[in-house]
Amino acid sequence: MIWILSRKFPARVFRVAVLVTAGWLVIQSVTGRQREPEEEFPKTDFSNAIVAMSEIRSGGPPRDGIPALDDPSFIPADRADWLGPDEPVIVVSAGGETRAYPLQIMIWHEIVNDTVGGKPLAITFCPLCNATLVFEREFDGKVLDFGTTGRLRMSDLIMYDRQTETWWQQFTGKGLIGEYAGRTLTEYPASIVRFGDFAAQHPEGKVLSRRTGYNRPYGENPYRGYDRIDSSPFLFDDAVDPRLPPMERVLAVRIGDAEPKLYPFGEFDEGEVVNDEVAGVPVVVLAGGAARSALDRRRISDSRKVPSLNAFDRRVGDRVLTFDRDGDSIVDRETGSRWNALGRAVAGPLAGERLEPVTGGVHFAFAWLAFRPDSTIFRH
To answer: Which of 264, 294, 313, 371 has the most Cβ atoms closer than 10 angstroms to its Cβ?
Structure first.
């Protein structure tokens, strides 16, 4: 483990680094130690790689030391009384079904192999990059199941699939080492919102249960104060892109292979609406109710609040809608319908319609810009 220190390393940052290190050691203490990669991954073809092993660092835990959830159970939203209304959840919809995955659980497991509405999906969260990404598990004619390697590249989780033991970069969905090196998983859109907003808008929705089969202190954050670091991030050796503070949260919008666009949270006030266009696609960015940070205080429920940003395609049928804030509501100019921050029309001619979310997710700026430096950055 290496600490990257700036020339002026403030006492506050040092204290945070100590806390993050302590949290990392806590995780290691319940997961065991690593062996050599070839011992832990006997099926991996290490001769087939698109990155050098020197770029990959040990995170501490061994293979599956941070255990993915392979048979997740769910409960109705009204029974998740252990989850505060302001806590963040990952929301995924497919095949008419919507599910929420609380970050207070994801922070201890990082991957959930699930099937939502008949669609096999991997819901992933890397705490060090604050990276939330969902991938389709159907790949090359088979359904893959993912686990954690215990390794990192540019501070980001490296996953592996249990079928071929290929190593995958979570941030890009690209195979790094093994049979599928150079291939890329298909990303699936998801949102991060307040649990209270999810429960109100999806009363039929299900929430990932704490009954995981593992003894973990769900609701506690082992990376206390991590998202307050204002110098170099933890376990990251590369130069930090100077365009944004490293731990600035950003909403990434990516359309196909076109240049991505970042929307920094610091540019938005709660409730703000921005109509924009990315790669020729009309999008709207909605700032919903602020949610608790999962990476601030020891108890997530006590952590400070940060905005919730989500992006949607503004097209409904053959119409391109333009949105404005009207008091507590969001209204489109074309029909006068009222919408919520989750992209659903709740009143008016379009009531019941839903905007399609766009892919990209929410991340720390340092991580996104390290992997996708070609991104443009939204400014007012």
So the answer is: 294
